[in-house]
Request: fold
Amino acid sequence: MRDEADCVTASFVVGYRSDRLGAHDPPERIAAFVNADPDRRLGVAGIDPLASSAFDDLAGARELGLVGVALAPADQGCRPTHERFVRVLEWCAEHGTPVFVNNPGLTRRESVMEFARPSLLDDALRGVEGLTIVLGDLGRVFLDEALILCTKHERCFAEISTLIRRPGALYGGLLAAHECQVAHKLLFGSGFPGERPERAIERLYSANSVTGGPVGGGGGGWPMVPREALRGIVERDALRALGVDAIVGGPAGPPAPARRTGASLAPNGMA
Reply:
């Protein structure tokens, strides 16, 4: 694996596990990749709540120094209101661990699309104190639900990697977020290696160009996503926003007090 993210200060390396789909990025593999460039990488463990080892996996990922947990309810066939799913969320809240929710296999027949509904996380965001969630899948399904959830809950964010290679969806998703007044809850994600971070940034700043007007605005009557909103996504300190409690720099190990940066982050740094 190569890291091409030279234009970002740090990136999340996001693991994935779905026993239902037969997919598993072991936390040890994520930690090894992080340790190859610990100044710029933070690891996120893919956890399947329905796996018998789920809670041992959580503890093991923490011991490896991984700073987040990735869940894929649709791909895992696990409704977000399921007892085991909620218990994983409670564990993450207790340990100050942000939860990335995305479903890379959503188009697979075995993936349960209904379980990708952001509204199914509403109860947990209301009831689990200290829970931080980052929604993926933005613009693939249930965009309005995702934006409403970000509006309702202070600790709910969304990342844009699923929009970045689809110009029309990118423009529509960013405009919808701006009109819902939640553009400040969007985090930069390139979806690397599917897209290089520098190219993802170029696409983001060019989002308004699909209207037929100049990149900066004025597209024949179409509403524009303000330039400052686009810049905010690129420049937002996602580490601080998510409360990631780990030093960027140094081998993976038990979490330590954070060194805050003005980082632009690519939450799906590795698929």
